């Protein structure tokens, strides 16, 4: 009589354990900054789309005041404050309006820099959120289309021991201004 050979239960369990440990190590290698930044970026994108739809539906212009720690909306009728959102600690916000970088401070004290009009137009602007070495960007070319980029995190292979990348950038304000100016177009998602 022939004996049929196969895998034992112990061998199958050992393989599953090794696959689980390996997949856990792979998931830990992705930066946690990327997840939090993606969540905040998507929140801003959905918030702007909802505000643009509200402007069109109600026939009222809405302004958005961006600050270093978040943003707020203002209705053009009477300038009453509508909604505010504060960013979590560790996430920085950068704004460029019509190609010019805007210095940001407290959004509660600032008049709106961006307007969403009922006819479908918007101020041309770009917003970047950064956390650690990761950057997410949203651009509005001047009508109710908000284009977002995938999150980009600087690669460790581009670093020199002094903490600068190969191009000599320190990843600071000037580097973000360069990225906001639109020179970093190759990572834009089409149709987003």
UniProtKB/TrEMBL annotation:
Subcellular localization, as worded in the UniProt entry: Membrane
InterPro entries assigned: N_methyl_site (IPR012902), Pilin-like (IPR045584), T2SS_protein-GspH (IPR002416)
Record SUPFAM superfamilies: Pili subunits (SSF54523)
Keyword Membrane: yes
Leader sequence residues: none
Main location: membrane
Superkingdom in the source lineage: Bacteria
PROSITE patterns: PROKAR_NTER_METHYL (PS00409)
Gene Ontology terms describing biological process: protein secretion by the type II secretion system
Transmembrane regions listed in the UniProt entry: 12-30
Gene3D superfamilies assigned: minor pseudopilin epsh domain
UniProtKB keywords: Membrane, Methylation, Transmembrane, Transmembrane helix
GO cellular component: membrane; type II protein secretion system complex
Membrane topology term: Single-pass membrane protein
Spans annotated as Disordered: 156-192
Protein name as catalogued: General secretion pathway protein H
Organismal lineage: Bacteria, Pseudomonadati, Pseudomonadota, Gammaproteobacteria, Enterobacterales
